[in-house]
């Protein structure tokens, strides 16, 4: 009797061109520096990053920094998007597109969909577009340039299955306000460095909220919409 043949199916994330591209981009991210940020006093840096009014100044100064999710968080994003068969995804904070690549790879392996990603810095948008083209995933991504309070105020999918919050931390509650009515039951929200947004954490962890939320991997808050 002939033994059954086991077919190995590789994912977009772990095969070329995406896997070697991510290796290269994470290495570039690790090597990036920003004199404009490093020369700021620590107290001023913390004030700008945590300000609801001066966040634009901080991200302008940090335009040379990649500020990516970790490799582990990137893999988590791919896994979550695959697990809930995400078709509509919104990302707050494109930066140079590393997290965008992980999410778009999941959409490709889910059979397609739409990823809306928004970024304040025009130079980062340009680089992110190029990286998504290198990954062969640009057709799945809609880039929006500008302040997310405006770029995500209209033109959203009827149904959102997954959200990544990884932009200005003080704006996390405001971005959730814009998206909340479109969140499907079972929709997932990944908030990177959410400990810098206590208002957001209080909201998604409240017993009265329609979320179940837990900290994950030390710097991520993972929440599910209960209905």
Automatic annotation (TrEMBL):
Q: What SUPFAM superfamilies does the entry give? A: S-adenosyl-L-methionine-dependent methyltransferases
This protein's source sits in the domain of life called: Bacteria
Keyword RNA-binding set for record: no
What sections of the sequence does the record tag as coiled-coil?
none
The answer to whether keyword Methyltransferase applies is yes
Q: Which UniProt keywords apply?
A: Methyltransferase, S-adenosyl-L-methionine, Transferase
Protein name as annotated? O-methyltransferase
